[in-house]
Amino acid sequence: MYAYTGGREFAEAEVPAELEAKREKAEQRQVQKAKAEAEGASGEAAKPRKVNKSALAKKIAAQLEGLDLLEKLVNALIRSGLATVDKKGIKHIREQVTALGNHYLPGAQTELRKLALLLEEAEGREASFGEAVEQLALIHALIRKGRPYLAAKQADPDLKPDTESAIEEWLGHAWQLAELQEHGLVQTGTELIQLSFISYDDAARQEFVDAGYWLELEGGAIHRTMNYRPYKAAKHMKEEDSFFEVATVGQLYVYPGTVNRRVRFDGVTSAPALESHLAKARETAEPLLSDAVKRVKNELKNPLGNKQPVLLAAVESLRETENGEIVIFDRSGGMLQLGDVPKYGRGTTELLRLLPKEKMEGAAVLLLFAHLPESGRLIAQPLSIIHDAGIIRLWY
To answer: I need a surface site. Which of 93, 182, 245, 284 has the fewest CB within 10 A?
Structure first.
């Protein structure tokens, strides 16, 4: 380009055949994409996929065997007690993690690997035993709910998947966009605004995770985008980043789940976030902190629910107690003490001391909740603050 602007002359030549072929393929992809979007917008149902019943039967049989293997391990750990698990026991758990790889249960693999990591930590930190017990309860719930679900699919291969919970994903199913569309899990023309973006290292999954929390301006639901980058391929994969504008998406694919359902989208146009968008976002916030806490507790009671739910809460004011603790208040006087979730190792609560008080008055705060088993406390960590002039991101 510098040479061209400098007046250099260039000879014209025929377009190479390889480049021409690539252009044609790219144009065909664009045509197919536009056709698919048009079909989605018109409400035309996607063609149901054909199920290979023989392959499905073999896969389910292997999954049931894997759950049996997992149950034997869980029962053995319960009988002996987690405190008796030594390095040899942790090695045995890791061997079972590898064995589960032959049973199409990547979700169970991840949770069992997480248990091994927690037990390793527990050797030097007594509090990790509480987390390990909760993790063991989660694995037991996966077995208890997964077995009858797989048995029902084994009896009826044409049985529709559960789209109201994440049980399919827990059992290792990787949802394709065509499947989500087939089951009506797609929205068109949705306006989203990203409230927070965090990246972290998930040792249990052996992946780096880029998570974006997006608010649906019309319905008020908070969704999350999840970009997984496996350790071995991370350097070849693009890392996601923060997004500061309002996104209007042609097709929003919503994964089965409960709170903060995972989404993917296609056909994005962006525009600056206006004051009207921010006002609309604040209107979707939970007005009473007690109701927000109630929603979170109901989610945490679900063994296979979201263990770190994110909610948007309306805040009337922020104060500091005599003990130096930071507390937020709602319009009715309800209060909630804030703190940092240890899992991520990123503190944001202390940053609130640096904000002018007027930035918190009448604002909405995006809160990340978690249960701390060692203390029995429910903790809420602030991620972002939405006020009339913009969004202050405490973690980005």
So the answer is: 245
